[in-house]
Amino acid sequence: MNTTKHFSSCVAEYDPNALPVSAAQEIVRQWALPRGRVEVERVRLFDALDRVLVKDVVSPINVPSHDNSAMDGYAFDGAALLDASGGDESLRLTVAGTALAGQPFEGRPLATQCVRIMTGALIPPGCDTVVPQELVQRAGDAVTFAASGIERGANRRLAGEDLAQGQPALREGRIVRASDLGLLASLGIGEVAVQRRLRVAFFSTGDELRSVGEPLAPGCIYDSNRYTLFAMLRRMNVEPVDLGIVRDDRASLERALRQATQDADVVISSGGVSVGDADFTRDLMNALGDVAFWKIAMRPGRPLAFGRLWSGRRPGEGESALFFGLPGNPVAVMATFYFIVREALLAMSGATPHSLPLISATSSQPINKRAGRTEFQRGIARRDDSGHWHVATTGPQGSGVLSSMSEANCFIVLKHDAGNIDAGDSVDILPFDCLI
Ligand code: AMP
Ligand code: MG
Description:
Blueprint: H1 4-11, H2 21-31, E1 40-44, E2 57-58, E3 68-69, E4 73-76, H3 79-83, E5 90-99, E6 113-117, E7 129-132, E8 137-139, E9 142-146, E10 156-157, E11 168-170, H4 178-186, E12 191-195, E13 199-205, E14 209-210, E15 221-222, H5 225-235, E16 239-246, H6 250-263, E17 266-270, H7 279-288, E18 289-295, E19 298-299, E20 303-310, E21 320-326, H8 330-348, E22 359-363, E23 374-383, E24 389-393, H9 403-407, E25 410-414, E26 426-431
Parallel strand pairs: 5-6, 13-16, 13-17, 14-15, 17-21, 19-23, 22-24
Antiparallel strand pairs: 1-12, 2-11, 3-10, 4-6, 4-7, 5-9, 8-9, 18-20, 20-21, 22-26, 23-24, 23-25, 25-26
Helix pairs in contact: 2-8, 5-8, 6-7
The structure holds adenosine monophosphate (AMP) and magnesium ion.
């Protein structure tokens, strides 16, 4: 299989020096298909959080299993309301007994009777309405209340109203959330079939990089991208495979890429993909697979390599993995991960991809922006008393200024076609709490 032609032809209709973000996302979407072979794991509920369901979970029972009360009050046959003609009249019923959650009332009350009932208790036979306790006057074994204050059928939860037996309760491709664990438990399901976690190998490239714990020689910097990548991958609940720092030489890079392709479904590197980088990077990546080098019209994150690598002697042989060669600058790594890589990881995990929720905010300052590229600036957003969002940048927006990401609470997403922003203009923001 030779996909090189395809990768390049995908971008042929665009300016190769400025591939729009939306086009890059679309190409990645086409190539990041779910793994061909579904590998299923059965996990217990406590291990199912953030995992991807392999198939629909069909409800084996009705939830709730029987009609029950939504309030603490008195259950009775609502036909009595119709008899209390005019609605102004009050209704007087005698209390025949009590229904507690887990302890149903035994027997069937008469039309002139009611049953003291607590939330969650079974509605007794012949009853269909619950009057809340705060609406009644109780005197001895009788209650009185205004018939106009209540409608027939009120405060009754119907059997199966939450989940009906035989209906899908959760869909295939669902990423299991907190509520889903509770929902599965409410169905009596203790185990679910989930996809094997996607394995994602990652490494940093650069002769200038040192690991935490090593001394810093002049001109060297600590490798931060591996930590950022590790964290973003962990948050997506994929299995991160850390391959460390790789030196800028052909043999080291080839070893890392082969190993990564063998071990993982996806390979992510950072650094070494800009124009100025050694030609061996491109040669090597093309020798191992089909890799396109893009200049994306985004800031930060312009250079990016994307393609498929093979672990065998030539493309098409051995194991294959999707490859993302991210830029080296620390903020660019984060922006390209969230806006180019993230959705691919979801799709390959078998999850139903969902787009990120952008919110409109008013810019509290002018922002310099060049038309013809999407910019992801770091912002501090706040919501005013009327619920409107306002945003300002964190200051200098260099793609190496990682502290701007820690200081910010959102990305300001400035659209491809937009030019300079004036104070008071509306911009899109993506709150980090939606991401991390
Ligand atoms: P490159 O794309 O390899 O030219 O790197 C661009 C910039 O990002 C350079 O200033 C690098 O020193 C820096 N950089 C590359 N990799 C890392 C890393 N793993 N951690 C921190 N900075 C990096
Ligand atoms: Mg480099």
